[in-house]
Backbone:
């Protein structure tokens, strides 16, 4: 592909070179690992009981537009985030996000490394996924804080820039993620509420609420939540870079 483009450019002259350059893009392969680093006692109830902090199958999105999933301070859009945040089900959001403007690629992660079927990532387990992106692309990831009514982990609503100063990002990006409240269901004590995914009678169970999507630090529900580093470790590793036609 590159050799053909160069030969074609040479035949056209300098103008052709510029035109050919505009029709190529640099794509880098990224590998992401989302590891559950919680323990069986990460969550503590008011009565002293303990529980782990599993997280759910989720969705990754490469995009150029901002606010592709939600906007902080605004109500949920009703296109699938509720199912992700309340039940750990990314499928409805995955289906709707493909139609969104500015979305380059997306995919679901649902099977922890070493497991043979989809399920939550319990302590010591991890999800992994790989995608390609170009300079200017951003990354959004959603995964449910499993021991909650409607909380989810994600970066800022604009996503994470995958290239900084022209170079692909790498390393630990845990600090770029936050715990969010989708505002669709009334919160109960994390790890012990009867309407939370591990204990609810059926999906979408529990009293509804009509609140904006907010970081958990901005929610006054009277409960305590573990710092993200006590639950997740998220790393990103760039691999080969290739030049391809637009």
Residues:
């Amino acid at each position: 592909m590159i050799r053909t483009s160069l030969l074609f450019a040479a035949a056209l002259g300098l103008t052709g070179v510029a035109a050919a350059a505009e029709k190529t893009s640099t794509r880098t392969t990224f590998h992401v690992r989302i590891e559950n680093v919680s323990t069986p006692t990460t969550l503590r109830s008011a009565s002293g009981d303990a529980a782990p902090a599993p997280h759910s199958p989720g969705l990754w999105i490469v995009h150029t537009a901002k606010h592709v999933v939600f906007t902080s301070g605004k109500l949920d859009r009703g296109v699938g985030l509720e199912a992700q945040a309340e039940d750990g089900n990314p499928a409805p959001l995955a289906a709707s996000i493909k139609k969104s403007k500015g979305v380059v690629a997306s995919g679901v992660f649902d099977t922890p490394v070493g497991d043979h079927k989809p399920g939550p990532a319990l302590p010591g387990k991890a999800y992994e996924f790989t995608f390609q992106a170009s300079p200017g692309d951003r990354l959004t990831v959603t995964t449910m804080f499993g021991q909650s009514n409607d909380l989810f982990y994600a970066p800022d609503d604009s996503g994470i820039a995958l290239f900084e100063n022209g170079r692909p990002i790498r390393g630990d990006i845990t600090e770029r993620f936050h715990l969010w409240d989708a505002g669709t269901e009334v919160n109960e004590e994390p790890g012990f509420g009867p309407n939370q995914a591990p204990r609810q009678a059926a999906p979408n169970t529990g009293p509804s609420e009509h609140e904006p999507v907010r970081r958990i630090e901005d929610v006054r529900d009277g409960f305590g939540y573990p710092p993200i580093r006590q639950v997740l470790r998220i790393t990103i590793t760039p691999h080969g870079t290739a030049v391809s036609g637009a």
In short: The longest strand covers residues 232-245.
